[in-house]
Amino acid sequence: MDQYEDYKEIDKFLRKCDPAKSTTEAAKFLMKLMSSGHIYSTSKYRTALLYFINNFFDQLWEDNQLDLIKEMLQYKFPYNSIDSECLDEVLKRLKTLMKKEKSIASVEISMIVIFNESFKEFFKKNLKKYSKLVGQSLGIYNLHIAKDNTNILDDFIQELYYFARIPQFRECFLEHILIKLHEVAINDAYDNIKNMWDLTNTILFKRSLMNDEEFNASIQSFYEEVGKFDNQVLTEAFIVNFKDNTSKIASFIKHYVSTVLLKDYDSNSEFFNHAEILFSILKKHNIETSVLKSIEPSIFDEISTKIIEFEKKVDKNDLGNYFRILSLLIACDPHLFVNEIYNIAVSNMLKEKSKDDMVKFENLLSTIIRIFGKDIYQFLRKLIRALNNKLQDNFELFKKRKRKITGSSDSPVAKKSKMINGLSKDSDTKNDLNVWPGVTKEILDEIFADINVNQTTKLWQFFNNELEKLIDDLSGSMDEKVVFKICFIADLYCQMFNTTRIHEHLVYKRSEISEAIEQFNTIQHKFYETIIKIEYNNHVMSSFLKMSYDYENFLMLYFYHHDENIKSELDSVFITNNSRIKSSEWKIIQQRIKNFGKLEEKNYSNLLMIQHLLKSNVYKINETEGDRNFLHSLLTDKEQLTLLMEQKDTRLLIFNILNADDSLKNLIEYLYLHMSDDTEKLSFVLTIIRNDPKMLGCFIQILLKLTKDGDTNFSKLLNILDELPITLLSIENKKLIIEKLLINIDAVQIDQHNNFVTIIEKLVKNDGYKGFLKDFSLEDVIKKIRNVKTYDKFYNTIIRNSFKKLTSEGMKSFELILSNNLKVDLLDICAKVVSEINMIPTSECSAEVINKLKVNLITKLLSQITVNNIVSKQQQFYIFSKLCGQNMSILSEDIKTQHMKLLSNLLKLTAKSQPSNESIHLFIMTLKDAKKLNLNDEIKGNIVKALTKYLKNMINDKISQETCDDVAKEKEIIEAISAFKNNCREIVSEFLLNALKERDVVKNQKIYTFKICEILFEVCEKPGQKYTLNTKNYKQICDKLTLMNDITDVDLLCAIFNAHTAMLKCNKENLEVYIIDSAFSFYIDTRNRPSSSCYKDFCKFNETVGQFLFVAANNHHKYFKSRIPQYFKAYTKFLNEIYFYKAEAKEDFELKEISMLLRLTLQLENIIKMLMKLHCVSLVIIAPYIMSSITNVFVKNPKMLTVGDKFKVNIKNISYQLLSTFDDRARKHTYAASDELARDVYENLFAELKRRG
Hints:
Layout: H1 7-16, H2 19-35, H3 43-62, H4 66-73, H5 84-100, H6 104-115, H7 120-125, H8 127-144, H9 151-163, H10 169-185, H11 193-204, H12 212-225, H13 231-241, H14 246-261, H15 268-284, H16 289-295, H17 297-313, H18 319-332, H19 341-349, H20 355-372, H21 376-392, H22 412-421, H23 438-450, H24 453-476, H25 480-497, H26 502-505, H27 510-533, H28 538-560, H29 564-574, H30 583-596, H31 599-618, H32 625-635, H33 638-645, H34 648-658, H35 664-673, H36 678-689, H37 693-706, H38 714-723, H39 731-743, H40 753-764, H41 772-775, H42 778-784, H43 792-803, H44 808-819, H45 827-836, H46 847-864, H47 874-886, H48 893-911, H49 917-928, H50 930-933, H51 937-960, H52 968-978, H53 984-996, H54 1003-1021, H55 1032-1040, H56 1050-1066, H57 1073-1084, H58 1095-1113, H59 1119-1122, H60 1124-1139, H61 1151-1174, H62 1176-1196, H63 1198-1203, H64 1205-1219, H65 1224-1233, H66 1236-1252
């Protein structure tokens, strides 16, 4: 450095530097210059930094030389050595970078500048520039926040404390930093939000630095800032700071209401937003409004008054927001609208709402019912009273439906006919009276289930009185308001009748219930008579039928659960005319509904009639003619029958009714004859028989009886039989079907031949018809079936089932096949079957006879194969070879010699050209049976050469064609030749590596390569394989395929990890540590994984990784001990992937997702068990680190643990294994490093572990 003592020469040298030649060296020179003690000029720091920023900064950033940038910017410059002009240039360049590169690296660079003590004086004088830089950095950081970098925010907060003491910093903080800081702090990845609030409160209020007068002035200043900056953050900051001082909060809310909430806004949405901010924060921090009201009672009165005023003038666009605010306010303070709650509920119930608004209204009504509906009788009484008052105020219910006006020229008879048969077809019968939302019904059901008997009887009496008044009003005129109230009351009736176990606990009030039942029967009959007289109304009819059906259902259950004494008391009620509508009356209703009513009403009516019929059968009530007419009309109505059979409860009712008096056979025939279309026959029969062999047999007999021989529509029989579970049939019924099919084979169309074969296969396969050849001789079957080639599968099935245990009939069939006296050649089919089954000797056929038949079969095959035709008959030769291998001990030397001769000739022929697929399959199977066939070394060597040559060509072709299709054939070949060639795996891997050279490898080639590597490793692992695969070639393959590059394709990722897993399994000693280290690092990189939005990819990838981690844990190699921390970094990432699966999603998991996650959580538990078994000592060191991730699951994602008990059981089992390694020091350290929620989790787990012993 002595040659640069003159500063001017240094400056001249710097100006002559060419950054393009050696930017890194020049930058390093500048830092050496600043650190040199030979040059004492302080201006060198300014010159060096300025020169660095203007000439080297951008180039170093592009070259990813971030360490040099950080080293320069975090340099501790002497006091006053860097002036404002220089730092302005630094900030300008840094802000430009952050606008261009919104990465975490840019945040780290900005933090170095912000935290540099040398720049503190500059930032103190330029607070606005400082605040803008911090705000910009926090905005970028929020895009990248994760569990492993939350310390960055903590560092920012600690840094801001330095400026919190500067009075002028307050406004800059509010304007540029607070919002960004809050956005980062509330991110789910950050769990120490208390730090943010402490900082905010210190800056805004600085209580410890002020006297009372200054403190009050600070609060007044804060009041002025509300409305100027973000209200939500400032309001929450105040409430958090003064949470224990309710008087301060009350004063603030009074100011907030007067200056913000009650301002005149251009739109209602602004008011709703500000109200939501205030009350959501109060609810979040558990601030009791009752205490605040005692201090400032007027403020909440003003809010409730304004909300009620809005109810009258709120438009459709703001209706959803209005419902949302009401729900929030009522939940926060139930007594805020205690005097208006019922009017609010019914007013909004009557308003027309969109689907989105309806969801929000459901939440509102649910909130009201949960809070005020504990005394359900008083709640409903007041609600109905409010409804009556509201409807009397000329309240517009819904849009009027258009009705066709009939002319006045109609005669009285015509008018009566129209009244009975309903409206004309031009009427709009759309049901738009959705009184009770679905969610609300569930809540009401819970409340009804909890009320006692006295309340139930009181409520029922109240409903009866209200409905009777409404029926009187209905008889006067068809008023839509009356119709609405009827629907309302009917829904409440249905809700009460359907309440769980209501029929059981009402047994204790028999007299009161009997009285209520009698009164309701009277009202029901009066209701019916009114309906008959008035103009048809869809809503009234639907309400009547729903209510009647649910009442009948309730009465059935009530009656069923009581003893004989109660039965006698209720008999008079149950079977009187009032309790069931007369058949003539039902006939009118049925006709009306059939012609003009909704399908829904028709369903209610039919369900009600079915209940009547079932009640008649169960309690022996005499069947009426109307019941029989209804049953007949039901069975001839296809649409209704299909719909009712789809429902489990009605399906059972129908079956019980129809099967009550008739025999099973008559029932099936009756049902079958009443269905005209074959598809509907099949659907209905499948529903009825429910895999019952007895019922199925009855149906088959009827079906065969009704199908005439030679019918041109015989294919319909085949279609029905193909869909039925005919494997359940008895042998007698199977015989009937086969006889029917063989007789009518000429009627079967060509396109139905496959169905014909499939049906007979079903009947005889798996020993389903052992005596087939006894009932049907093979010769007779062949005579009846002419198109033999179509029925190969049929003959295969017959022979397979008949030859397993040969009978005398089977022996005759075997000899017929060998004699060639049949009209078809079944020799090949017979040989294939015999080679695949184990023929068991019987009393009719000894082992000697079986051996003789097999030798005759082999001799017959040999006679058909010659040297000249062996290439064309390779399939037959393969079966011949297989039979020879299985029966070598009983063959003559002549047959063995001829077999070897034929095999040698085939090898010579295939050596001259590319072997066919049949030849390769034959060679593979021959090698597998080498011992049985007693092959000599020359033939084995020739087969291995042929297979090796074929394998190389196939690998080369697939890599050239960039295909990654199935590798089953390659695996089969490698397994076959590796048993006879020790260095086969090295040859293949070397060839694979050479094939990849000089190529730009794409995705499919990579996948294929790793699949082949996986096969090679798996072959090494198999029992009997003494040689392991050297991983040198595999390492070069991994390097060639750029293993560490970003890879997102799930198929390639799985191929890589499958290959690694196979390598770990086979290489217990000669382990390539580099590859395993790379694999861990590769997985830990968060970019290399599929998204949870794609279920199939996520499942496939994580199951593959789980297997890799399990195999890695099940390894005794010494390398593992030193890599426990790295392994568990991968393990905890795997755990978080599973237990935080779709953590942000609102929808529930599908069943397939739950099944997948259960498999993965079980894998997590198995891995820990394996580690405890093999590496317990190493596990002690890292167990607290893993437990921090597990407690995070309990604290941050309880959704996952509530999906199913097994999820919680699995993660607890993992926790118990880890906690069992904790000593006192580890426990104390864990408690000290955990927050309050995590400590609660630890305490519960330790307590459960102690109970388990």
